[in-house]
């Protein structure tokens, strides 16, 4: 039956939320939230992680995917189509960036095995016996230690680490200053990294078979202090680019950066592979170990020169605020 124009005009306009009580406030709030979300989503793209709050928000980029999905849903419920469009486009861009980290590479890792463990000892408070237990049980070949104090070196020695891994290039120091490399195979100290705020030693690992591997123990300064973000960025930039000659290289440690931070992205873009992302575990969090804050992935093992990851795992170490990372790398001949 045909309705008159008067009858149609008298019907409620369900899709005009703004005319309902409180609808205008809800629309305004949704718009503000969407604008904030767009700024958050843009941080990894426009590379504005230059001060501590931007650094923190960039670290939380994977969580922005969830926030974007919620905003899209709210926009659909309120029928705010422009908000839906902007939130959907930004969320799609984030998904395009983040999802590959949970998709394993299809390239098989081939060559001689090199088992790498990285542990942040939290000012030397980590359980030395547990570290040695993991080294033995996993037959670790090279161990990267961050926040390595002289007291921690002594505890590791008493726990039997240096009987298991007799070769070392260590630069212990107070609090978070010290870093070290301990190896099953002979080491020759290198200077691949210029002096940085915290020690970042490097060495050539004399592999028993195949090509030798350059190894860097990584620990740039924590970026969340009142005036440390600039130093953090400088410490990351000091890390070496992949060798032009194709020399195998591994960098392992607490990068204090996620795969969304500009300097780490730039480094990987020059030819490094992230072990976790390569096997589909790129979103596995490593800090904080007790989840007192939204957990993020800031500990990494990077490789270049024909070195690829075969597996990857995170390990709880009592006394540390980080989860240790373990990977079996394959060094192509």
TrEMBL record:
<keyword id="KW-0255">Endonuclease</keyword>
<dbReference type="GO" id="GO:0004519">
    <property type="term" value="F:endonuclease activity"/>
</dbReference>
<dbReference type="Pfam" id="PF03372">
    <property type="entry name" value="Exo_endo_phos"/>
</dbReference>
<feature type="domain" description="Endonuclease/exonuclease/phosphatase">
    <location>
        <begin position="117"/>
        <end position="322"/>
    </location>
</feature>
<keyword id="KW-0378">Hydrolase</keyword>
<feature type="transmembrane region" description="Helical">
    <location>
        <begin position="28"/>
        <end position="46"/>
    </location>
</feature>
<keyword id="KW-0540">Nuclease</keyword>
<keyword id="KW-0812">Transmembrane</keyword>
<protein>
    <submittedName>
        <fullName>Endonuclease/exonuclease/phosphatase family protein</fullName>
    </submittedName>
</protein>
<dbReference type="InterPro" id="IPR036691">
    <property type="entry name" value="Endo/exonu/phosph_ase_sf"/>
</dbReference>
<dbReference type="InterPro" id="IPR005135">
    <property type="entry name" value="Endo/exonuclease/phosphatase"/>
</dbReference>
<keyword id="KW-1133">Transmembrane helix</keyword>
<dbReference type="GO" id="GO:0004527">
    <property type="term" value="F:exonuclease activity"/>
</dbReference>
<keyword id="KW-0472">Membrane</keyword>
<keyword id="KW-0269">Exonuclease</keyword>
<feature type="transmembrane region" description="Helical">
    <location>
        <begin position="81"/>
        <end position="99"/>
    </location>
</feature>
<feature type="transmembrane region" description="Helical">
    <location>
        <begin position="52"/>
        <end position="74"/>
    </location>
</feature>
